[in-house]
Amino acid sequence: MFDDTLRQLRKLSIYKPMNFQVKSINLDFEDDNFELSPTEQIRILDEVKSHTWQAIDGDDLVEEITSATGFCVNSIDYIPSFPVPSVYTDTPLAEEYYGG
To answer: Has residue 87 got a pLDDT over 70?
Structure first.
């Protein structure tokens, strides 16, 4: 089957999307006919890292980011992102752990 068909089947299947947070990412900003300023590159990278992404798995996450930014992902480091109940974030230990 074609990659797009498999992707659509995965999305329609029993697999539910998960939330992911990107910790670090390297996008391929190089192109022979186009050059993005360093300021714009940083802005895009910051937006990708500040966004909570929904995807089925790591491969789907890469596809989502590539589709959203228009740039291929060279490398990525991500973690699952879970909502944190406020009861856990209102303590000094939680502030230290969650960076709040």
So the answer is: no
Count of CB atoms situated within 10 Å of the CB of 95: 11
The span from the CA of 5 to the CA of 34, in Å, is: 31
DSSP class of 34: B
Domain boundaries, the chain: 3-98
What are the two backbone dihedrals, phi and then psi, of residue 44, each rounded to the nearest 5 degrees? -65, -45
At position 28, the amino acid (one-letter code) is D
The answer on pLDDT for 24 being more than 80 is yes
Cβ distance 91 to 42 under 8 Å? Answer: no
The CA-atom distances, in angstroms, between 23 and each of 1, 8, 40, 57, 93 are 33, 27, 19, 16, 22
> Do residues 56 and 63 lie in contact, with contact meaning Cβ atoms separated by under 8 Å?
no
- Note if the pTM is more than 0.70: no
